[in-house]
Design a protein that fits this description.
The protein has about 200 residues and is mainly beta. It contains one helix and ten strands. It has an eight-stranded antiparallel barrel. The longest helix is centred in the middle third of the chain and has 5 residues.
């Protein structure tokens, strides 16, 4: 008589105390707020962020959490400035539109509150994450392009080194629409332009 032994399949362990610690990457278009007369954007003005967020759930089902992190940010704002607006009437004859590019690199520190309907067994879920972000500007540069040639100059001392803003991102799984609203101006004095980024944010486990 032959005996038959049952073969049990290995059980998948369930981590009921899971976290959604994640690397993030955002790509957005910088629309810019509070543009003065004579300023007009051209081409694509990108905003890029990449970093890591530490997830800290505070409900039993892990659907609600707060998260803090650190990352790198890059902003590139391309605008035409009418020479009369920049240098005064008659400063350049004839009047022309000057191509300007503001490029800024910074360290960002996001803090967000999170809702998601995740489970321990699936990484695909709906999410709504919203929060506040502080960015310390490491370096800022202004590029000018006129009929007389090109010029580059550092404007690190002219910008607000700390930039603050609120953001929200929501979606399912990988693709998440993203909006960032800058609270304070880019520059210390003069221009009141500030960042307004609209794009997508991606989360990678």
């Amino acid at each position: 008589m032959w005996s038959q032994n049952s073969i049990e399949e290995p059980r998948q362990e369930i981590d009921s105390l899971y976290r959604e610690d994640q690397f993030y990457f955002s790509l957005s278009y910088n629309l810019v707020q509070n543009r003065p007369t004579g300023f007009k954007q051209f081409s694509f003005s990108p905003g890029i962020s990449v970093g890591f967020l530490r997830d800290m759930p505070f409900t039993k089902n892990r659907h609600w959490a707060i998260a803090s992190g650190m990352g790198y940010s890059y902003n590139n704002i391309k605008q035409f400035i009418n020479s009369e607006e920049l240098l005064g009437v008659g400063a350049i004859t004839p009047s022309e539109n000057i191509r300007t590019t503001i490029i800024a690199h910074g360290l960002e520190f996001p803090l967000e509150i999170r809702w998601r309907n995740s489970t321990p067994l699936s990484h695909k879920f709906w999410r709504i994450y919203t929060g506040f972000k502080a960015t310390y500007i490491l370096n800022a540069r202004l590029n000018l392009e006129t009929s007389f040639g090109k010029d580059k100059q550092s404007i690190t001392n002219e910008v607000n080194r700390w930039q603050f803003g609120a953001y929200i991102t929501a979606g399912f799984n990988t693709w998440n629409p993203y909006i960032y609203y800058g609270i304070n101006p880019i520059f210390k004095d003069g221009s009141k332009i500030s960042n307004l980024n609209i794009g997508f944010q991606f989360y990678i486990l």
